[in-house]
Fold this protein.
Amino acid sequence: MSVTSIEFFLFAGLVCAALLALGRAEKLKKLLLIGASLYFYATYDLRFVLILAFLTVLSYAVGIRVHRAESRKQKKRWLGVGILVGLLPLCFYKYLPVMALGLAPEGSPVGLGGWLDGLVLPIGISFYTFQALSYPLDLYRGTLERPARFLDLACFVSFFPKLLVGPIVRAGQFLPQLDRPIRVANGAQAASGLYLILQGLAKKLIFADILANHIVDLAFADPASHGTLFLVIAVFAYSFQIYFDLAGYTDIVRGVSRCMGLELPSNFNRPYLAATVSSFWQRWHITMSSFFRDYLYFSIGGSKRGNVYFNLLVTFVCIGIWHGAGWNFVIYGLIHGALVGWERFRRGIRKARGLTEAFVGAELVGRIALTFAIVSFARILFRTPDLAGAAAYVRAFANVGNMEVPVSDLGLLVLLLSFAVHFTPPVWAQAMRRRFVSSPAYVQAAVVGAGLFLFLALPDATASFIYAQF
Amino acid sequence: MELGAYVETRTREPQLSVSARKYRWRSGWFAIVLTLAGLLLLEVLLQGRAYLQTGESIFKPKDEQAVRSIVVDGLRLYPPNTVIRGTKMEIRTNQYGLRSPPITPSLLPGELRLAVIGASTVAGAYARTNDMTFSQKLAGLLGKRHPGPVNVVNAGISGLTVHQMRLMLEKVVAPLKPRLVFVYTGFNDIAKLCKASAPPSASAVRIPHPALPSWLLIPELIRKNTIALRSSYRASGTGLRRANQVSPAAIDAYRKDVEELARAARHRNIELVFVSSLSSYRRNMPLAEQQDLSAFALYYNKCLDLNGLYAVTDRLNLIQQTVAKANGFTFLDIRAQVPGGSAVFVDSSHFTPEGERLVAEALDRYLASRLN
């Protein structure tokens, strides 16, 4: 059941109605949410419900152990064991097949390697593994003062809107919401949820999917047959595609969740308006990058213990590997880690000289453009299946003589709109949301109707979410 | 007070204040209900319109809907002996579930009996009446020359592929003992090639979830009527580019289907004539015109661009030609006799009345030389 399908929204609507019907029976509401979530996940693959159940039980058991342990050392030991065991399914499904295939003789995916290669990656495993593990981590760090009830924890881990592609909500953020009664959204909250859903669908179906179908997929399918101009356009188009794809998903599930009376965190803050790579990572996939910052970077010393540059590199390589088990993702992480390290070093020197980091005017515009370009070109590693594919794409930049740009009028329009939408002042978007929420219902319904028409008319085909493969 | 708060406290405060009532009309929930009601109303209106124009809609019993063909022994057929009448279309089916005049199981004395097997183009997707399909126009032309009764069985059913055309030959057409059978395969097999060439999806153990019914008109009408929005390449002038990856296995499967069809005919001593499939877009047209005319075909064949469509069509025609030759049958190329363009085609592949006439005349010319 895709989150962009009408079936999904009818399903979510039914869950809302059932929550409303259950009145003040909070336990039943949580059971309903768990049941709905497991059903939703089973529409992708029934078998993977077991992994979800395993992680929930493990987190719960480890959480209790961590809470009850008397010394810091004991807590740490239980936490370490919990994290190691909790990461096992992720390693088994995501990393082991790649490692086994890498070690097997070329062209012979047989035996164990072949069997592992045939494994289906459980959708969302990278996301819900981290969310489940955030529970013992938050208990250890003191973000959560006491262990949660099992029902609450199961509701948190399995909550279906965020199950597949996040946002990566931490236990400390979500569980307190379950301590309060779950109240289905009131009229204004529902309008705001509806706006988020519309915004998310527009980002996914109009921007991300059209950019993918009309520009990006064509360029990356066979780069050698295209000219430099088109390949460069496709690099920037992919940057927008991946942003609108994940931001669209996040908006949709935040909207749905809000209608149910539960809040999920935002994931983006105009990432391509960042003037430095460090700033980009504070604006891009915020729930994921802050997870790595808080639970890994700080844990290995951050800027306080050890070599900060080494710590940065380790963190960014792990971010790269979280996306996929390939050298392209390792190098992607290394590039970003090195750039963030370099910026930190430079900032230190400027500070020592009494200079500020605040860019203004033309310099700010130039910095934003440079950061956007760096981030976009580094994503070639992200979009291609492996290093050889990335190298082939880069080699094709030499086709300077070919000036053909096989982009449809719609693709071109959407690309230009992507720039316009992303680089316009954020207050405009806020004003639009306020205007929608305060409009009469018939105006809101008309906007929804117009949106539905565009969502059906414009995309060629709905592409699966990019982050669903991670 | 907002609606949510009102719902929670309504037992204590049954009367809404003026401001609360005002807020109620700003509720997101109310907007959702209004949208759903609007969509429902629109769907009902569209179904009503479809009923008036084509005589078909979801309001009719399922077994009386021609477009929702029924399956008999693995073969799709229209509901037999049915008249489906609308302002724009009238479909009369015979006792075999074909859009064709009633026909006796055995040959009448002096009867010239032929058949045309195919899909929607043969059935007459846009032909207002049965008489306006090219098979019946051909019967009319033959009737002027042939002294006895002439029957051309229209064995076209929307959506048929070559595999199903063999079933049509074996189960319906062959027992009627036609002297000659035209096979006009059309383009459904190309769409099948695209599906067969897609990478296999990972095996999953899914539990089912309710899906929207396929008879809903809103999504399909919006998609079909906005093809031009998605397929315009005026700014770049290059035209749509796709990977054009059709797997050799899918082509081989098509070849086998055609061979089985030919074998089935030979086994029953039926003479087959493969007729080249016709499209509205032609290579000799300006590129922009080719793109406009092929938009409909590209919508249904997601793995191909214009060049890919030409290449695959040529390939499939060549297969038919080779198989026909190997089995002692004819491959009739009528592309030169039926030009492309919007005067002859409603979309990429279905005929206008003019197109139906031109095809009937082309087949008649062939028969004039063949039967004499």
Observations:
- Chain B touches chain A through 51 residues (CB under 8 Å).
- Residues 28-54 of chain B form the longest helix (27 residues).
- The first strand of chain B starts at residue 70 and ends at 72.
